[in-house]
Amino acid sequence: MAMQTVGVVGAGTMGNGIAQVLAASGRKVLLAEASDDLLQKGIGRVAGGLDRLVKKGKMTEAEKGDLLKRIQGTTHLADLAPAELVVEAVTEEAEVKLGIFRKLEAVTRPEVILASNTSSISISRLAASTKRPDRVVGMHFFNPVPVMALVEVVKGELTSEATVATVTALAQELGKTPVTVNDYPGFVANRIVMPMINEAVYALMEGVATREAIDTVMKLGMNHPMGPLTLADFIGLDVCLAIMEVLHRDLGDAKYRPCPLLRRMVAAGLLGRKSGAGFYTYAEG
Questions:
Q1: Residue 285 domain-assigned (yes or no)
Q2: Are residues 217 and 168 in the same domain?
Q3: DSSP code of residue 136
Q4: What rounded mean pLDDT belongs to the chain?
Q5: Is residue 133 part of a domain?
Q6: Range of the domain at 242
Q7: SS3 37
């Protein structure tokens, strides 16, 4: 098993899920966050997910304890120095990610692969902030990470075939199905699904149908597991907006213009499940 020690930057929804699947594969995980509070919340979410597995009989208490011991938290990126690969999973903002990559360039060995879990931002742009563009790659997991099988392996303009092969093999060892895609805005998944969500928001804003009707049409008519508005709430409306803005700006096509209702909801703090309200409301727990 290659890559015995892997770093993860960001302990949020995606980062803690990535840390969990890496630790479940027997690897040591160095999990970094900006503050101890955010770090403990992230590790707490991992523990909560494992508790549910224990209750279902899919994991023992001993196995849970062993997995959590393999996740070592830190608030200092320099502590990721021993990692053989680092996965960045911070907020979907280009300047924030660029700052992280510049810091990782300084604290990790030159041969270490730097991967980003970005869902839309250019891998080539992130790679250009380092002196190892051949070792920068996209490793786009899907939420919830422990459940979803797909990983988009995104090849930047200068990403080497060896790097793609290494990350592809790692994804397979994690029990995932890796698919190699080229570095275009939104890659494949979000270039297709986000405009669908955006159009559903337009349909709601224009009064074409109610939220329930829109979701039901897509579930029963298109056999989707959940409707686009429910999916938007699950992903986070702020994340949906950020991806649509990348598509609109980088592809330069008006068809990717974010719906004004989506912008208003994000401005109002209606972000979906994580804020307790979006297109639907959610009770705590």
A1: no
A2: no
A3: E
A4: 96
A5: yes
A6: 190-274
A7: helix
The DSSP secondary-structure symbol of 217 reads I
Q: Are residues 57 and 167 in the same domain?
A: yes
Instruction: Confirm whether 282 is domain-assigned.
Output: no
Kindly state the average pLDDT of the residues 60-88.
97
**Can you name the residues that pair with 177 across neighbouring β-strands?**
150
- Non-local (6+) Cβ contacts of 73 within 8 A are 11, 31, 32, 33, 39, 40, 42, 43
Secondary element (H or E) of residue 240: helix 237-251
H or E segment and range at residue 3? none
Q: Which residues of 211-247 are buried (b: 16+ CB within 10 A; e: fewer)?
A: beebbebbeeeeebeebbbbbbbebbbbbbbbbbbbb
186-223 pLDDT, tens per residue? 999 999 999 999 999 999 999 999 999 999 999 999 99
Which CATH number is 142's domain given?
3.40.50.720
Asked if residue 281 belongs to a domain, the reply is no
Whether 50 has a pLDDT exceeding 60, the answer reads yes
* Catalytic center residues: 119, 140, 152, 190
Last residue of a domain, one of 128, 151, 182: 182
Domain count within the chain: 2
Model confidence band, residue 3 (pLDDT cutoffs 50, 70, 90)? confident
Of the candidates 200, 260, 203, 191, the one whose C-alpha atom is nearest the C-alpha of residue 231 is 200
Interval 158-186: pLDDT, tens = 999 999 999 999 999 999 999 999 999 99
Q: Nearest-CA neighbor of 139 among 107, 172, 93, 106?
A: 172
* Residue 55 and residue 177 in one domain: yes
* pLDDT at site 283: 84
Alpha-carbon distance of 140 to 208, in angstroms, equals 34
